[in-house]
Amino acid sequence: MIKVEIRGENIEVTDAIRGFIEDKVSKLERYFKNDPEVFAHANIKTYQNKQGKFEITIPMKGLTLRAEEVHDDLYVAVDQSVDKLERQIRKHKTKINRKFRETAQAELDMFSVQEPVQEENKDEEIKIFKSKEFTLKPMDAEEAILQMDMLGHDFFVFNDRDTDGTSIVYKRKDGQYGLIETN
């Protein structure tokens, strides 16, 4: 069973809203049959323009599922977010199954001749089209933000002068900046 923790910003989480969210999230339970306890963190926010934002995060071992939607109707935002999560889960499951089939096929090929395994969803493969290599320059977060803005990028990776760790600054959808620090 998925346990949903719901937090509201600028809105009271009524029993009706809570019930609707829990009902929608419960349709994802079929993907977590092997996990006895799955926790989902949901955040509801309303803006002055009457739009509602729904964010949901499901942290798991080795994977974090996350979706967010902004819509005039909060219930539509919840529906769209849960649909996004479901697509993420199916895509991840397909990727794992494909890797398993490829590994199993390679092992079978070593011992016998087999029929080739049919590849499904070949168009959903993740392909890296461009690769870059660069040296991380020691700097502080403010300098990294200036570099990011100067380059016109949405994120910038740098070696944090204060912590000696690799850090990432990024531009958020609301125009503010975020910082990710590594251990």
UniProtKB/TrEMBL annotation:
GO molecular function, one term: ribosomal small subunit binding
Domain of life according to the entry: Bacteria
A cellular-component GO term for this protein: cytosolic small ribosomal subunit
Pfam families given in the database record: Ribosom_S30AE_C, Ribosomal_S30AE
InterPro entries in UniProt: HPF/YfiA_ribosome-assoc, HPF_long/plastid, RHF-like, RHF/RaiA, Ribosom_S30AE_C, Ribosom_S30AE_C_sf
Stretches assigned to coiled coil: 75-102
Cytoplasm keyword on record: yes
Residue ranges occupied by any Sigma 54 modulation/S30EA ribosomal protein C-terminal domain in the UniProt entry: 124-179
Protein location: Cytoplasm
Keywords: Coiled coil, Cytoplasm, Translation regulation
Biological process (GO), any one: negative regulation of translational elongation
Similarity comment text for this entry: Belongs to the HPF/YfiA ribosome-associated protein family. Long HPF subfamily.
Biological role stated in the UniProt entry: Required for dimerization of active 70S ribosomes into 100S ribosomes in stationary phase; 100S ribosomes are translationally inactive and sometimes present during exponential growth.
Subunit composition and interactions: Interacts with 100S ribosomes.
Record's protein name: Ribosome hibernation promoting factor
